[in-house]
Amino acid sequence: MAMGNPGWQKGVSGNPLGSAAPGARREKIILSALERAIKQDDKDRIRKGLEKILDLFAAGEEWAIQFVADRCDGKPTQQLDMRVERPIRELSREELLRIAAGSSEGDTVPGPSDGEATQLH
Known about the structure:
The chain is mainly alpha-helical. It contains 4 helices and 2 strands; from the N terminus they run H-H-H-H-E-E. 1% of the residues are buried.
């Protein structure tokens, strides 16, 4: 078997569990129900449901305010901390010099041999 080929046959899923696998996309139940109601021309029910949410929004119900804000303005961008901590012995000399100098990526730090500034990339 070739190194690059993990043994999958062409056209065969690498995820035999399909949507049952952890992390798989889940069915959008509410969206599906709304689509069914719209197809059945039951717009009055949808309007009443939305009016109820708007009444709760106007009354200051926190979940309703968040619900409306998320749908009108979109959910806020989520910031993730992607720092990876590594043991000191795994850091390169250049990384250690940058840390010791208290500088960040792109700043100048003492060069490895003569003490002159070196531009980091």
